[in-house]
């Protein structure tokens, strides 16, 4: 095994072009587990911790762009106001020690259906910026996840940054786990209200081969939500929303929970998260008025 | 009975060293080839610099324990799931099983051996003894390093906050409520 | 008196600074590293094993398979008491369970050994494994009692007849899961040979077991084996008996001529040293309408392995806890392609969960408050031997009283599913904790030097329970010196043979020997002083001299005094040794546990909001460490109730949760503050110092109390542990 240590993004991309089999490592929270037990022994490791630009972020009036190797802890502390949904999801990742090192780039690279940030990225219309020595590409999150632990990256590409619109409305993330901390999601749900577009984004995790948007449920919200003069949502609407979210899931039985339980819990999470988000929106509208 | 090829077989591990040489010249920091051989790195631990010969695949945890003889840091799972190996790197708590030693050159690493000043224990160490915040002691070094960081981070505002921010460290003896009490005690004594 | 005081742990400074050296922490020059390769299949044969590539891998010193495996001087018998299992790996090609050792790689570094282990190629002939208890119930059988004299059948009166005619009958089918101990410290063995003498740095709850059985396997005299374990990072049963990895490592080190260290990975710890067996239990209780119990019929089936027939899950609480004239207990086992089970803190809690659940069901059926129901069936005499009073060793009434007061247990319980708070259903539940008192022979030696400091030694263990501290306190009191004048060393078979740390017996056993050794040493020094004309105590009858705070003095004229150091400076060091043969009277430990839970009935998530335990552990030796142990035991029960289960692939027989993210032990954020009370009355029948066990007792009760609280909150009786959210929907 070879250990490659680029100090700039350009250098990293050249190395990845020369050695496409090189496995990128930044936080190490996914890759190291496989290395420690020789479940995976890549010919080369590409250490991205010295590539400063991958851990930076920038923002303008409407968009936040952050490097793929920005640790969760910094994301929460420095970008939490602009990206509340992502901050909530990041707070539920692993443990404080993991959050000090783990990154959204790593979550995307691993593309596990249970990754905590995926539903938020989907619900918030994130774009994954990837690069290779050949050039750069922007991949919408909704096109990024291809299968269980498979993503749209080409072998010579690296994830460089993630671009998200600043939140224009309330965002929520919720997950069910058998423990109160350090827990892999049994299932998870994210919702982002986009009042400027009079619509909401919603997505599920740990409930299908890939994290996925729940378009029918989103469309339902477009129909029932009155953004101009927001009213309290009837329970029937929340319940219907929950059913639509659950119906989009294709979960499996595994050690963390049964498929039936996942569907049930997703409906509950969706119902509640919608309630919290919509109430916050109504509250915001009232206080603005 | 049917013959079946073992899933244990792994053929993906064979390496190509030819390509390695080709890449090396690109790097300003030289690539470290792992031909089963080792390279010398410098680790700064508890204020002391150590030259140590390791293969790239050696974790910071194994470097500390097996190469530097700093066995205070414990290995509980080697997967980042228990927190026994928690150390501070540049003041931040991380799990030393989830980082390679070669990635931490130039960083200031603090382990449980580096907290006391001679016979004088760190306030967190004292509080752990006073509050009986451990039984078998296997998770204790990790708990203590996590507690030091938790206090520095300012996550000690309430019992519930301590519980949440100390949840990255398992304790099978379940000294949990005593750990919360110890962290709260030490937080009062530690100037931030 | 220092005994009973909440003295800080004397091993505290070593543990909080990282100075404490555990089994895997020893620095040994020339050390090599062993890595195990384990079977990928659960049943069948190895038809080819190719080690060529591994053997040529850099740094590799040796690759061991069944072709060249160590051959041993002994074969553990069918009932392998203190061996963990009968099966010795690496002797032939047969696979009995997934995760069985099939090869060992030794290399100069851990990384190189681990890598080379992945290069070994194995072809198997696979057979369909038997994995399910439920699917094999018809094959269940009653095993022989074996050398541990486990009880599989018991009858008194006419239980079936009494049940058939009982005005109130409640029956339940309870399931408990396979569980793993998961001490935070992984199991480790470091074997160092010097000529024909072996030193083993071992994670063991029983130095003597390791020494005896390793010697037996290797065909050497016990005197040639030294076992060292000054600190143990928890065990909970997993490190109690002697398992193959230990003597395999020792044998390889001998043939290699190099020291070898083996540390099991977390995953390997799921198949190398036992587990708590899964059980299916049918339990029926018959009672009068006022809740007076007339019959128990309890029938249990638990898993065992292909080569061993054993069930550690004793269910004596059913026949010994409550007054009841008719009782029947039958325990059977089924053979599965899984490892051999072993005791896990605490074997009795598995049957105790069923018993205390059915008590709650009986309470619902009769309308008698759960606490009142238990008092109504209180036994003052041993129900198995009605002429034998429990006597002064039973303070369960005090436990009920203390616990109920601390918890504020309601006299009238609200109906199930009637109390809501913050969107969740609230429920309370209680249970009785019950555990036998075990003791073992123990020896403690003391040398007091001219400086008046006592060096105490015993070949026992501190698995986290506080042995270092309580023995220090006990000896200090016996001698009449301050605790700081006593230094206790343990964890080395070079010291006097002593008690194993299994079955909650260390404190009572070693503590008693320590007390006698201390008293004997005091008597010796007094005898020397009163016979020495240079002593102020010269000529005083020895019986009139006593000691306190390091000073010997005349009871009737305390001005006549001198220090231990004064005597010993003139006379030289004094030694004493005491053996406690461990012949106790009948004794049990008791407790009452109370729990409150909140259940989110939309997601099924359960949160324990309050937990109270009141325990009769005899005399409390250290209020601080005893409390910690009791809290830990109750959280152990919480894990069993809500989160812990080992899940096995039903086709492949592989453990799917062999890590700490799939097997969920409670974390900091899962647990409430636990309130503990102790009766703190000495039980002279248990041990001469009046102490009984704590750790296992305290892990009994909480599981059922929480399960009962969940039922009270939701109206739903889950009879299948753990109570995961899906079971509440």
From TrEMBL, chain A:
Recorded superkingdom: Bacteria
Recorded hits in SUPFAM superfamilies, A to Z, give:
CO dehydrogenase flavoprotein C-terminal domain-like, FAD-binding/transporter-associated domain-like
Q: Which UniProt keywords apply?
A: FAD, Flavoprotein, Oxidoreductase
Start and end of every FAD-binding PCMH-type domain? 1-169
Q: Record's InterPro entries?
A: CO_DH_flav_C, CO_DH_flav_C_dom_sf, Diverse_Substr_Oxidored, FAD-bd_PCMH, FAD-bd_PCMH-like_sf, FAD-bd_PCMH_sub1, FAD-bd_PCMH_sub2, Mopterin_DH_FAD-bd
A single Pfam family, by name? Answer: CO_deh_flav_C
Query: What is the protein name given in its UniProt record?
Result: Carbon-monoxide dehydrogenase medium subunit
The organism named in the record is: Kibdelosporangium persicum
UniProtKB/TrEMBL annotation, chain B:
In this protein, which residues make up the domain named 2Fe-2S ferredoxin-type? 39-115
**Sorted alphabetically, which CDD domains does this protein's record hold?**
fer2
Superkingdom to which the source organism belongs? Bacteria
Name the Pfam families for this protein. Answer: Fer2, Fer2_2
Q: Which PROSITE patterns match?
A: 2FE2S_FER_1, 2FE2S_FER_2, TAT
The signal peptide, as residue positions, is 1-33
Q: Which UniProt keywords apply?
A: Iron, Metal-binding, Oxidoreductase, Signal
Cross-referenced InterPro entries, in alphabetical order? 2Fe-2S-bd, 2Fe-2S-bd_dom_sf, 2Fe-2S_ferredoxin-like_sf, 2Fe-2S_ferredoxin-type, 2Fe2S_fd_BS, Aldehyde_Oxdr_Iron-Sulfur, Beta-grasp_dom_sf, TAT_signal
The protein here is known as Xanthine dehydrogenase yagT iron-sulfur binding protein subunit
Instruction: Tell me the organism's taxonomic lineage.
Output: Bacteria, Bacillati, Actinomycetota, Actinomycetes, Pseudonocardiales
Automatic annotation (TrEMBL), chain C:
Aldehyde oxidase/xanthine dehydrogenase a/b hammerhead domain residues? 17-128
**Pfam families in UniProt:** Ald_Xan_dh_C, MoCoBD_1, MoCoBD_2
Keywords for the protein's UniProt record, in alphabetical order: Molybdenum, Oxidoreductase
Q: Which residues form a coiled coil?
A: none
Q: Which Gene3D superfamilies match?
A: Aldehyde oxidase/xanthine dehydrogenase, a/b hammerhead, Aldehyde oxidase/xanthine dehydrogenase, molybdopterin binding domain
Concerning SUPFAM superfamilies, the annotation shows: CO dehydrogenase molybdoprotein N-domain-like, Molybdenum cofactor-binding domain
**Gene source species:** Kibdelosporangium persicum
SMART domains in alphabetical order: Ald_Xan_dh_C
Q: Matching InterPro entries, A to Z?
A: Ald_Oxase/Xan_DH_a/b (IPR000674), Ald_Oxase/Xan_DH_a/b_sf (IPR036856), Ald_Oxase/xanthine_DH-like (IPR016208), AldOxase/xan_DH_MoCoBD1 (IPR008274), AldOxase/xan_DH_MoCoBD2 (IPR046867), AldOxase/xan_DH_Mopterin-bd_sf (IPR037165)
Protein name (database record): Molybdopterin binding aldehyde oxidase and xanthine dehydrogenase
């Amino acid at each position: 095994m070879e250990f490659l240590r680029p100090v700039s993004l350009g250098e990293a991309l050249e190395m990845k072009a020369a050695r496409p089999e090189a496995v990128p490592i930044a936080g190490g929270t996914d890759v190291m587990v496989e290395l420690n037990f020789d479940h995976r022994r890549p010919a080369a490791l590409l250490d991205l911790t010295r590539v400063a630009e991958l851990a930076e972020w920038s923002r303008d009036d409407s968009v936040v762009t952050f490097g793929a190797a920005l640790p969760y802890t910094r994301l929460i502390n420095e970008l939490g106001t602009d990206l509340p949904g992502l901050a909530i999801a990041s707070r539920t990742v692993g443990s404080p020690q993991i959050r000090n090192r783990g990154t959204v780039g790593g979550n995307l690279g691993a593309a596990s259906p249970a990754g905590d940030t995926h539903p938020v990225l989907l619900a918030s219309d994130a774009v994954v910026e990837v690069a290779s020595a050949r050039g750069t590409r922007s991949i919408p999150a909704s096109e990024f996840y291809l299968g269980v632990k498979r993503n749209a990256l080409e072998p010579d590409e690296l994830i460089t940054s993630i671009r998200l619109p600043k939140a224009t409305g309330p965002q929520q993330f919720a997950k069910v786990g058998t423990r109160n901390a350090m827990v892999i999601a049994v299932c998870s749900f994210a919702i982002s209200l986009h009042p400027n577009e009079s619509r909401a984004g919603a997505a599920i995790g740990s409930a299908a081969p890939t994290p996925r948007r729940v378009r029918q449920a989103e469309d339902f919200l477009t129909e029932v939500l009155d953004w101009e003069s927001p009213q309290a949502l009837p329970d029937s609407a929340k319940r219907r929303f929950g059913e639509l979210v659950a119906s989009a899931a294709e979960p499996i039985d595994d050690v963390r929970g049964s498929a039936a339980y996942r569907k049930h819990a997703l409906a509950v999470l969706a119902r509640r998260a919608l309630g919290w988000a919509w109430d916050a929106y109504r509250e915001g509208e009232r206080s603005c008025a | 009975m049917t013959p079946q090829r073992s899933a244990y077989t792994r053929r993906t591990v064979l390496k190509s060293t030819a390509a390695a040489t080709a890449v090396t010249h690109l790097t300003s920091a030289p690539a470290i080839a792992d031909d089963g051989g080792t390279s010398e790195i410098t680790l700064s631990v508890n204020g002391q610099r150590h030259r140590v010969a390791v293969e790239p695949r050696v974790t910071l945890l194994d470097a500390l324990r097996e190469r530097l003889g700093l066995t205070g840091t414990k290995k509980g799972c080697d997967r980042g799931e228990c927190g026994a190996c928690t150390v501070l790197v540049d003041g931040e708590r991380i799990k030393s099983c989830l980082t390679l030693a070669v990635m931490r050159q130039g960083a200031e690493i603090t382990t449980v051996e580096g907290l006391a000043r001679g016979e004088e224990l760190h306030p967190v160490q004292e509080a752990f003894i006073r509050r009986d915040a451990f039984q078998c002691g296997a998770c204790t070094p990790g708990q203590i390093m996590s507690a030091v960081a938790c206090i520095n981070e300012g996550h000690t505002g309430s019992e519930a906050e301590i519980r949440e921010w100390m949840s990255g460290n398992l304790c099978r003896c379940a000294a949990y409520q005593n750990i919360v009490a110890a962290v709260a005690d030490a937080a009062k004594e530690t100037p931030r | 008196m220092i005994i009973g005081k909440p003295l800080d742990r004397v091993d505290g400074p070593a543990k909080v600074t990282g100075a404490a050296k555990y089994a895997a922490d020893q620095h040994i020059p020339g050390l090599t590293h062993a890595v195990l390769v384990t079977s990928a299949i659960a049943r069948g044969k190895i038809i080819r094993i190719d080690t060529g590539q591994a053997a040529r891998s850099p740094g590799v010193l040796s690759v061991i398979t069944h072709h060249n495996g160590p051959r041993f001087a002994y074969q553990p018998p069918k009932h392998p008491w203190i061996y963990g299992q009968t099966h010795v790996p690496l002797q032939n090609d047969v696979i009995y369970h997934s995760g069985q050792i099939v090869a060992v790689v030794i290399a100069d570094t851990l990384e190189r050994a681990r890598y080379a282990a992945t290069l070994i190629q194995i072809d198997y002939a696979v057979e369909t494994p038997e994995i399910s208890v439920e699917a094999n119930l018809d094959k269940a059988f009653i095993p022989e009692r074996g050398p541990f004299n486990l009880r599989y059948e018991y009858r008194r009166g006419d239980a079936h007849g009494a049940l058939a005619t009982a005005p109130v009958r409640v029956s339940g089918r309870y399931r408990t899961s396979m569980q793993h101990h998961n001490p935070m410290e992984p199991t480790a063995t470091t074997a160092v040979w010097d000529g024909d003498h072996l030193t083993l740095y071992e994670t063991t709850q029983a130095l003597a077991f390791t020494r005896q059985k390793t010697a037996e396997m290797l065909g050497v005299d016990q005197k040639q084996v030294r076992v060292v374990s000054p600190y143990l990072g928890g065990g909970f049963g997993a490190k109690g008996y002697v398992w193959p990895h230990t003597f395999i490592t020792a044998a390889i080190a001998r043939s290699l001529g190099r020291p070898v260290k083996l540390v099991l990975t977390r995953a390997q710890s799921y198949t190398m040293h036992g587990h708590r067996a899964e059980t299916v239990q049918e339990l029926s209780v018959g009672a009068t309408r006022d809740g007076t119990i007339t019959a128990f019929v309890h029938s249990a089936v638990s898993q065992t392995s292909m080569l061993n027939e054993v069930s550690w899950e004793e269910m004596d609480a059913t026949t010994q806890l409550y007054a009841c004239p008719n009782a029947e207990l039958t325990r059977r086992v089924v053979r599965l392609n899984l490892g051999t089970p072993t005791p896990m803190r605490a074997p009795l809690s598995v049957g105790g969960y069923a018993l205390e659940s059915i008590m709650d069901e009986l309470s619902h059926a009769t309308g008698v408050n759960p606490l009142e129901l238990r008092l109504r069936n209180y036994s003052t005499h041993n129900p198995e031997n009605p002429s034998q009073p429990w006597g002064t060793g039973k303070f369960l009434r005090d436990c009920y009283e203390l616990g109920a007061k601390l918890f504020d247990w309601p006299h009238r319980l609200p109906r199930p599913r009637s109390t809501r708070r913050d969107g969740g259903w609230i429920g309370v539940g209680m249970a009785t904790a019950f555990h036998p008192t075990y003791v073992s022979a123990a020896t403690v030696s003391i040398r007091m030097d001219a400086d008046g400091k006592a060096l105490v030694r015993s070949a026992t263990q501190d698995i986290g329970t506080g042995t270092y501290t309580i023995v220090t306190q006990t000896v200090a009191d016996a001698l009449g010196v301050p605790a700081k004048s006593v230094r206790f060393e343990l964890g080395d078979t070079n010291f006097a043979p002593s008690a194993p740390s299994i079955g909650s017996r260390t404190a009572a056993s070693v503590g008693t020997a320590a007390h006698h050794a201390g008293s004997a040493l005091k008597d010796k020094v007094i005898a020397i002083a009163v016979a020495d004309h240079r002593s102020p105590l010269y000529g005083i009858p020895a019986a009139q001299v006593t000691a306190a705070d390091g000073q010997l003095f005349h009871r009737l004229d305390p001005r006549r005094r001198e220090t231990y150091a004064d005597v010993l400076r003139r006379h030289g060091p004094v030694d004493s040794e005491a053996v406690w043969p461990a012949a106790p009277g009948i004794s049990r430990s008791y407790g009452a546990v109370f729990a409150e839970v909140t259940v989110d009935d939309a997601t099924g998530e359960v949160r324990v909001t309050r937990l109270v335990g009141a325990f009769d552990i005899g005399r409390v030796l250290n209020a601080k460490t005893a409390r910690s142990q009791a809290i830990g035991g109750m959280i152990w029960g919480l894990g069993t109730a809500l989160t812990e289960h080992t899940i096995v692939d039903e086709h492949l027989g592989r453990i799917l949760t062999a890590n700490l993210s799939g097997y969920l032990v409670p974390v900091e954020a899962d647990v409430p503050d636990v309130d503990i009370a102790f009766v703190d009355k000495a039980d002279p029948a248990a041990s001469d110092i009046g102490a009984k066990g704590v750790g296992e007792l305290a892990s009994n009760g909480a599981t059922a109390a929480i399960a009962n609280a969940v039922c009270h909150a939701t109206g739903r009786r889950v009879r299948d542990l753990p109570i995961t959210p899906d079971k509440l929907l």
